[in-house]
Amino acid sequence: MTSQTPVQLIDDDDRTRLVQRRHHAPHDVLGVHSLHDGRGVLRTVQCGASAVTARLAPSGDEIQLEHIGDDIFAAALTVPASEVATYELDITWADGSSSTISQDPYRQPPTVGDVDQHLIGEGRHERLWEVLGAHLFDDELCSFAVWAPHAAGVSIIGDFNGWNPRQHPMRALGSSGIWEISLPGVSAGSVYKFHITTGDGVHMDKADPMARLAERSPATGSIVVAPSRYKWNDGAWLAKRATAAHDLNPMSIYEVHFGSWRKGLSYQDMATELVDYVREKGFTHVELMGISEHPFEPSWGYQVTSYYAPNNRFGSPDDLRALIDAFHQAGIGVIMDWVPGHFPKDEWALGKFDGQACYEHPDPRRGEQPDWGTYVFDFGRAEVKNFLVANALYWCREFHIDGLRVDAVASILYLDYSREEGEWLPNIYGGRENLDAVSFLQEMNATVHRDSPGVLTIAEESTSWPGVTAPTSDNGLGFSLKWNMGWMHDTLEYVQRDPIHRSHHHGEITFSMVYAYSEKYVLPISHDEVVHGKGTLWSRMPAGHSWDRAAMVRALLAYMWTHPGKKLLFQGQEWGQPAEWNEAKGLDWADLEGWEGEFHRGISGLVSQLNQLYTSLPALSSSDHDPRGFRWIAADDAANNVLSYLRRHKLPDGSDQWVACVVNFSGSSYSNYRIGLPMSGTWREVLNTDATEFEGAGRAVGLDLEAQTPGSHGLSFSAHLDVPAHSARVFLLS
Question: Is residue 407 among the annotated active site residues?
């Protein structure tokens, strides 16, 4: 039995708000509810339907719903709402086709509970990805939940409902700002967005901030994914990682841009080709650029639109898991670039998400990054901080990432970063420090280290901010490591000078040891140093014969590998690629072919040897952050452009492992060059970058040192050696 008039079936205000997509509680209107006379009423929105029939359980009654306008169908029931256990809806569409809905979305309970809402509001939900976003359940329902605190209404739209924003309005959960709905008929691979009605009545479609997969550019939809079925095989790796003494262990990182290492490779391809290459070269870690979804490829992954979605260009999330697992099986750690400092202004993504500043700071003096044309996260907002901290945990938990290299930390820390006077807003004390960002970074680091033991956090921080790698308990930022940008810039500035001029700039190559232990450092030669006209390691070397360039590159790399600090080298530099990096093309692997390729093959072979030496001699790594592990022999030989120094490691039996390094950055060879040494005896040569196996001239190769009295350079013993031009020699006390 149906009611007599449409007015009795739905309140005018409810109708208006549904039509205008501004209803915050559609579940209170749609589905089965009570009329004033005690009878039940069934309402449903079915856009494009010509007829709707309901079959009630347990009674089995069939009721024809009345189309009361605005795609709303309703019927008064003969029984109270409490007596309707469940029902099905048979829909006849305008084209004559039909379908059945066995589970009305508006009969489903919320999937985001009170505790979840409380934790999100407090900024403490460490498993945010498990409650927000899209989630498939065994009963063929898919839940959708999104945080949109300023929205007047939110609907889920997708290929499962014709992208019609009136079909499935979502409900707001109290004052949490979270909107939620559960739908039947949604499967893995379904594409969706959230349709948001702002307080000003503007309608816009937004990708899911918590999407775990996104469409490939130029499409911008989010994709429903099934729970991962990937079976990890790295339990032993994770257990070892959790107890590893990372400060003492060697760490040699190969930085890779997926799209340009070798063009056309997928995650599956790289699980063999890239893994095998990194293992053969002897690197301990790989750093992956652009792993989070970013539609603009030339951004290299630094303008992220989907923080929880792996880059879809190369395969599925499980394909990425398999790649990381393959690295772990090969004994190689995986670091990912993580970009919490800023995000792009694409209208379909995070920016002005619900019509107002939501993820970004509302004041443009803090909420916009003028250098990059992007928004800056509002680090002081609990839900935004939660979004970012949970994202860091997500990659560690769901993808077994071993480290997060945090991009552009200086831009996060300083309120006046790249801003002129009057363009930035001071903190409450009148200073330039972003106190909210400091709190965020401390919380992120502390939470990651607690939740995922052994995971490293690495700061790309270009200033002298104190305590970047100090523990948060000591009011530090809590990072595991910091990129040594000063070392990188000074060293590259030095080596690009003609050797005859280097003696006047000797301080550039020695200054790094003045502050080498102020933080725990990584020595990087990163992608930023081989683009935009800066040249490569090869092209930075002063003009000359290719042999000379290759020799200088070899000497530089040996200096880098024997200098205190962990190592990072960008792809292509391990063989001295001449051309600047171009993300649109693959590396110039042809450089390793032909006669000219001999010099590049020599550099490549040296890098393999450096990694082998570095990982086998604790003196070169165990004291990277301990000044007791380094001593200059001669830091002041500017006239000859020669550096000599010692590395030291305390062995378990109490004795010392000593390594002596002599690096000649000049174009002249020196005979009978004297260095001081701390111990008498034979110092065996373990590396000579001028060896013929590295395409050198083979000068002084294999000549060990005999340390005898008298001493020199403040040390008790000394030895004489030949030092070829543009070379490095490394000796181990036997």
Answer: yes
Q: What are phi and psi of 405, to 5 degrees?
A: -95, 110
d(CA 37, CA 106): 22
Per-residue pLDDT tens over the stretch 252-292: 999 999 999 999 999 999 999 999 999 999 999 999 998 99
Residues 422-466: tens digit of each pLDDT: 899 999 999 999 999 999 999 999 999 999 999 999 999 999 999
DSSP string, 433-462: B-HHHHHHHHHHHHHHHHHSTT-EEEE---
- The active-site residue, picked from 293, 460, 624, 690, is 460
Cβ(53)–Cβ(65) below 8 Å? yes
Tell me the residue type at 137: F
Determine if the pTM surpasses 0.90. Answer: yes
Which residues, other chains included, contact 623 with Cβ-Cβ below 8 Å and sequence gap of 6+?
564, 629, 630, 647, 648, 649
Say if residue 420 is exposed, middle or buried (CB neighbours under 10 Å; 0-12, 13-18, 19+): exposed
Q: Which of 407, 436, 529, 637 is catalytic?
A: 407
Classify 130 as helix, strand or coil.
helix
Count how many Cα atoms sit within 13 Å of the Cα of residue 303 in the half-sphere of its side chain.
Answer: 17
Q: In the annotation, is 548 catalytic?
A: no
Residue 3: predicted pLDDT:
43
